[in-house]
Structures are given as structure tokens and as C-alpha cells.
Amino acid sequence: MRDIERLQQEIDQLKNELDVTIVAHYYQKDEVFEIADITGDSLELAKRAKESGSEWILFCGVGFMGQSVKILAPEKRVAMPKIACCAMARMIDSTYFDASVEAMKKAGIKEEDILPITYINSGAEVKAKVGKMGGSVCTSSSAVKIIEKAIKSGKKILFVPDRCLGQNVARMMGLKSAVIGIDSDEAIKEADIVCYNGFCSVHQLFTLKDVEFFKKRYPGIKIAVHPECDPAVCEVADFVGSTSQIIKYVKSLPEDQKVAVGTEYNLVHRLRDKNTYVLSSTKPECPTMNETTLEDVRDTLQAIKKGDVINEIFVDEDTIKWSKIALERMFEYLEE
Ligand code: 13P
Ligand code: SF4
Question: What is the CATH number of domain 203-278?
Fold first, then answer.
């Protein structure tokens, strides 16, 4: 028996003995993805993990994802087989958030006219700041709906931390955007959406040159990308959507339709057939998503069994209170 199968069996046995739900994001390695009870994009995982009946959630993903489950369901115990952090989420903390509010004030916008929206790829402290200012969380699949709702308030949106997602949503909605630290005070004052200058280094790997290459090589090919990609790439793509939305789009295409996909390698590789390509000449892997191994999952389950878990997620009460408000506002907006 192969090592992978042996480990997967060990994990199954431990899972049967324990009150644990294993959750995995689409970007996890195949062998880890296969043993999960719940899989999905970041919105689906947050929703479904909080509703699961188990005492323990074993989250195979990056830190903000496990943390979001802990915030939404503080009574649950959440452990991560590897404490792996999303590099984009690490680009902003509460100090940088406050500095962004100050930059907008310096450009002539009053604090009471600012409504912050944070991408779920951010830490609990940033979500709490957003919650306190009356703002909401969004995910890549819910960003348009949340910003449509937020813009109705008549306020200026401060969008953190992903510049590309903010700029892409602004373009799709016909709104003006500006980036703090890049654009002038006048441009910031004029903009409907003011973006923090954070980004995902994995999604920056997809370039216009890659699009040109695939279109020239395979005339008629479709291009599908994640909204964390550069706005110039999203503008020429046939489809822009979250990880789940990309999967649905690719599966909806006729069998002989070629498509090049611009998102993390593990997801695209799983979709791969003779007509589905990775939109890159490199291997666009998210380094931290790829950190989690079957050994880590097995070891964490054994630690739960022994009552000796080291990778458990904790968030203090006040941060839970305000970040939960920001996360739940997203669910309320989506239901309205
Ligand atoms: P999704 O919301 O599409 O799952 O994306 C999360 C993410 O981190 C993409 O890089
Ligand atoms: Fe974060 Fe980018 Fe990895 Fe997604 S792909 S988890 S945004 S670093």
C-alpha cells in the first residue's frame, strides 16, 4: 500500500473515534483535499464549518480561514494542522488600517463618510476595526454584492487589503477607484472605492503576456481568472470569479472548449483534462496552502485524541465580538 493511502486510512480511523470535521480549501494538496468532510471556497467554508455539528474543526487552509470559523462559532475548538498564513492577509494589521483611514482624511474625506470593507483574507484585528466602523467582510464570491450594498450608504468605501479585488469590482460596477500610496489625494477624494495597496503574489504571476500566448497558440480559447489577478488581466478575461465560480464555469463549457485558468495550481490541476490549461509558464503554487501534509493532519488528530493540541486557534473576546459583527454583516447583506 502506498504511503498516501496508509496515512489516509489512519486519518479515517482517527476521525471515526473523534468528534472532528475536517475542512479543506480548494488550494490544498490533492491527498489532503481528498480526506476532507467539507471542501469549498472561502465563503462556503466559513458558512458550512460554523454549521457543522462537531466539537472540533480541523482546518486545512490558511490562518484567516480557521480564525473566521472560530469567530463565527467561538464555542467550537478549531485547530490547524499547520499554522500557515496567507501572505496577503499579513500585509495589513490594525496600525496600517488606521493609517489608511488617516490617508483618506488627509485627502479631505471625513471619517464619518468612510465605510470600510475588508476582504476575508485579513486578520481578526482588522475585521474587528471594520466591524466597529459599521463595515463588513466580503469574499471573492460576494465582493460585488457587498460593495453594491455598501455603496448605497452614500459613503466612500475603504477596501482592504487586496488592491486588485477592489479595482476589479470597481471596474465591473462602473465605479472610480484609487490606491493609497500610489494615487494623488485628489484621485482618492474623487474615488468611490479607495483601495489599500495589498496583493496576492501568487495571482500576480498571471500576466497579459500569458493571455496573449494562449490566445495565439489556441485561437478561441477561453480565459478564466480569479479577481485577485491584475485588473489588466481580468479586463481581457472571459470569466472572472472565485475558486468555486471558476470550477462551475469550467465544468459548464462544452467538452471540446479549451480554457486557460488563472488561479492556484492545485485547483487547476484537479480540473485538468486535455482542454484545461494553467494560465502561466510557471507553477503558480500558494506556498503556505501547500504547507499542510497528511502527516500534519494525522499528528493533529492524534494530539486531539491525547488532549494535547498545539495548533489551536484562539481569539480574544473583544476581537471576536467586533470581527463577528463584520462577518455576520456579510451574511445579512447576502440574504437581503
Ligand atoms: P476564494 O474566496 O475564491 O476561496 O479565494 C480565497 C483565496 O485565498 C484566493 O487566493
Ligand atoms: Fe493568500 Fe494568495 Fe495564498 Fe490565496 S493564494 S491564500 S490570497 S497568498
Answer: 3.40.50.10800
